[in-house]
Amino acid sequence: MERGSARGRVRRGFRRWFRPLLLVVATAFFVALYQSWIRIPANIAPWGDVELDRPPGWLARMQINSLASDSAACIAALDRSQLRYRRTPVRPIRNGCGLEAAVRPLQSHIRYNRPFDISCGMMAALYWYEAELQRLAQQHLGTSIARIDQLGTYACRNVNSADTGRRSQHATANAIDIAGFRLADGRTISILKDWGRETPQGHFLADARDEACRFFNVVLSPNYNQLHANHFHLDLGGFRMCR
Ligand SMILES: [Zn+2]
Question: In total, how many domains does the chain have?
Answer without folding.
Answer: 2
